[in-house]
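Task card 7
Instruction: Convert sequence to structure tokens.
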Amino acid sequence: MLVKKRKVIFLSLAAILVMAFMINGLMERQRLEVLQSVAGNTGEEGQAADAPSQPKILGEAQLVDADAAEDAGVSVTVGAVSNGYFADARINRQKARDEAVELLQSIVSDEGAEEQSKREAAEELGVIATLIAKESDMESLIKAKGFADAVVVMGESDVTVVVQSDGLSGTDVSKIKEIVMSEAAIGAENIKIIEVK
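Output:
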């Protein structure tokens, strides 16, 4: 009987581990799709054909704001997107999240699953709900600062912000950085800002 319980626990833990890898893969795939769609028809990720060969890093001469040196570590690149990019990005992000949520909900509702597996799946559902809320909050706050549109994608340890702008100043980058750092509690070196026109 004890051996059978151990096997069930082992199999449950293995299933949770596989599920975690699958969810991580789905979310990373969604993040890469956002980055690739911004790259559009460019040769490099996040760079437009007329952009410099290296991404702009805050603190370099390309940014003119006096306080830009404070923001060293935030990566800023320029990308090209289609007209419906922001709506499409939100739809694609939602599809990836829906797949992960469906997988987790199937574990929670499975009567044969161990209670620990159900608890861990429910916790993961909570994490996804928190990510969705934080991304939405950051997008709203960025738009409230005067930007036409923005899509935020949170990874495990980084945040990518795609923002519509006719040219980001050091002040603009600082505004975005402050929003992301306060909402996501990450360092500036883990923030990537992609400007699209």
